[in-house]
């Protein structure tokens, strides 16, 4: 499967809205730099950053010299390549809400209609429609234009549809790239490779063999400088609607007939539609909301969510969510899928744990009584690995079984710099491959499952339970999973 190659791209203009923002500085610009180092950015391509901040190109480049540089590891930095890269970068101050301010962009892009043109919207979703209107009214959309939008797309299904309607009025669906950067992570694509490149998993990948699935995206960071955005969003919209559901659908989908974008997306959407709705009291019984309070890590104390200056001190926004979901299909009937995400949790850990059923009848004594059956653990962060827990006979003159791990660590296997998820996605936007992007109906189906959960939280005034920063979330999350006689994998 070759979802990305170092093929030469056509020259492009990459217009980065939100060029001074957190995501641009930490991920997008470093990703473009790394692709330049790989020789992938054609000469005569340009990265044109915009934001309201008043500075010129020289000022922006010098800002990148300090702010972006600190997000590039010294071992991966090459001063000559960096200098060449900066020569590709330009800046225009632009307030996206002011139609007049698109004028300099019009001048800059004039005469380059034959180039691939990417409008990358790294701004709050509330500005997506304004930018779409702005570039349309300024006559900037060409045949070779593409628009890439950050998640979350909207705040709910209705607002997502509104944005999508506006986008569809001026772009064709094959020009629209809805980003979920989890799809750019190597291990997520490896999940596809694992499932559909190896025949032996398929007979096991079903309710007859799988007991439960746990997907955790735990972060040790808090909301940092993004409090104002985050408080309007919360973990359900920020992480569950997109990243967690994307991991779930890739894990649960039927084999697509090919790796073509629509073949893959057709299968993904079937899973989203098969998710059993969680509404009303069902949503309350099958979900947990949490909000972190002050706590500590090895490095010292950290403040609570409400201690942030840009967050109202009576905020009831959740920074943690756990959900018990089920998929109504032949393959998955009866298998609980536990989803969990949170900020300021014990460690940065992203993993998918597949717990297989116990042996039907045990003939061996085991140290743990087979309490934890065979497990497949696909770890995305901090390290990327695939581990399989199996039972073997412990050495000795008795027959005692003991669990051990078959361990595949991708760092050992590949021994090269791990790409930032965005590197792949940005190149795919430029080359025009939509496989790793969400189609409109996928986004709508994800919101259709999420909205009733949020509505139930409001209806029942289901407030977040507090948890101490540096822990695995509120106790209610353990209670949720223990109803099925299970516990979270926290090894
Ligand atoms: N940060 C992250 O880790 C992630 C973010 N995202 C998504 O990416 C998007 C951007 O997030 P993030 O970078 O964190 O946000 P930031 O708040 O850090 O950045 C927002 C950017 O938008 C610009 N901006 C705001 N208002 C206007 C305006 N009226 N006209 C022009 N530019 C404007 C700001 O610059 P200025 O104030 O100078 O105008 C800034 O460059 C969001 O949709 C978010 O959900 C997705 C995944 C991860
Ligand atoms: O989309 C988002 O993702 C990040 C976590 O991404 P990761 O690649 O570091 O796992 C999260 O911090 C942020 O709140 C959210 O918007």
Automatic annotation (TrEMBL):
It catalyses: D-glucose 6-phosphate + NADP(+) = 6-phospho-D-glucono-1,5-lactone + NADPH + H(+). Keywords: Carbohydrate metabolism, Glucose metabolism, NADP, Oxidoreductase. Pathway: Carbohydrate degradation; pentose phosphate pathway; D-ribulose 5-phosphate from D-glucose 6-phosphate (oxidative stage): step 1/3. NADP(+) binds at residues 52, 95-96, 151. InterPro entries: G6P_DH, G6P_DH_AS, G6P_DH_C, G6P_DH_NAD-bd, NAD(P)-bd_dom_sf. Its EC number is 1.1.1.49. The active site is at residue 243. Residues 15-190 form the Glucose-6-phosphate dehydrogenase NAD-binding domain. It holds the Pfam family G6PD_C. Residues 192-489 form the Glucose-6-phosphate dehydrogenase C-terminal domain. SUPFAM superfamilies: Glyceraldehyde-3-phosphate dehydrogenase-like, C-terminal domain, NAD(P)-binding Rossmann-fold domains. GO terms for biological process: glucose metabolic process; pentose-phosphate shunt, oxidative branch. One of its GO terms (cellular component) is cytosol. One of its GO terms (molecular function) is glucose-6-phosphate dehydrogenase activity. Substrate binds at residues 181, 185, 219, 238, 343, 348. Catalyzes the oxidation of glucose 6-phosphate to 6-phosphogluconolactone. HAMAP family: G6PD. Belongs to the glucose-6-phosphate dehydrogenase family. This is Glucose-6-phosphate 1-dehydrogenase.
């Amino acid at each position: 499967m070759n979802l990305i190659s170092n093929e030469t791209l056509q020259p492009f203009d990459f217009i980065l809205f939100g060029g001074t923002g957190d995501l641009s500085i930490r991920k997008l610009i470093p990703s473009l730099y790394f692709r330049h180092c790989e020789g992938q950015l054609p000469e005569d391509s340009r990265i044109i950053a915009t934001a309201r901040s008043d500075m010129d190109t020289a000022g922006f480049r010098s800002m990148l010299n300090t702010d972006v540089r600190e997000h590039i590891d010294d071992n991966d930095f090459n001063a000559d390549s960096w200098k060449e890269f900066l020569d590709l970068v330009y800046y225009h101050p632009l307030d996206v809400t002011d139609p007049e301010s698109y004028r300099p962009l019009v001048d800059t892009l004039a005469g380059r209609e034959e180039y691939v043109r990417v409008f990358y919207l790294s701004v709050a979703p509330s500005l997506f429609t304004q930018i779409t209107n702005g570039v349309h009214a300024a006559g900037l959309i060409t045949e070779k234009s593409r628009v890439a939008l950050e998640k979350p797309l909207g705040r709910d299904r209705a607002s997502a549809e509104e944005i999508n309607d506006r986008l569809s009025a001026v772009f064709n669906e094959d020009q629209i790239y809805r980003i979920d950067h989890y799809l750019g992570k190597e291990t997520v694509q490896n999940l596809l490779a694992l499932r559909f490149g190896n025949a032996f998993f398929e007979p096991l990948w079903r309710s007859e063999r799988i007991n439960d699935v746990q997907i955790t995206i735990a972060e040790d960071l808090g909301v940092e400088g993004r409090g104002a955005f985050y408080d309007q969003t919360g973990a359900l919209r920020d992480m569950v609607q997109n990243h967690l559901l994307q991991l779930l659908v890739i894990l649960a989908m039927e084999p697509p007939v090919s790796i073509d974008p629509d073949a893959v997306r057709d299968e993904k959407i079937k899973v989203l539609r098969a998710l059993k709705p969680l509404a009303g009291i069902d949503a309350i019984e099958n979900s947990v909301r949490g909000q972190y309070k002050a706590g500590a890590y090895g490095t010292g104390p950290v403040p609570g969510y409400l201690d942030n200056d840009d967050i109202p001190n009576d905020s009831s926004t959740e920074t943690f969510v756990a959900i018990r979901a089920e998929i109504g299909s032949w393959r998955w009937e009866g298998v609980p899928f536990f989803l969990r995400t949170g900020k300021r949790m014990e460690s940065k850990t992203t993993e998918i744990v597949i717990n297989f059923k116990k042996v039907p009848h045990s003939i061996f004594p085991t140290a743990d009584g087979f309490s934890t059956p065979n497990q497949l653990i696909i770890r995305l962060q901090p390290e990327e690995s695939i581990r399989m827990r199996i039972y073997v006979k412990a050495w000795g003159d008795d027959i005692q079984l003991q669990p051990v791990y078959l361990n595949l660590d991708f760092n050992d296997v590949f021994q090269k710099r791990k790409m930032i998820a965005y590197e792949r996605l940005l190149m795919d936007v430029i080359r025009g491959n939509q496989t790793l992007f969400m189609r409109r109906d996928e986004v709508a189906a994800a919101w259709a499952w999420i909205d009733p959960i949020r509505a139930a939280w409001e209806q029942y005034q289901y407030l977040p339970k507090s948890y101490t920063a540096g822990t695995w979330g509120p106790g209610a999350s353990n209670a949720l999973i223990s109803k099925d006689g299970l516990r979270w994998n926290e090894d």
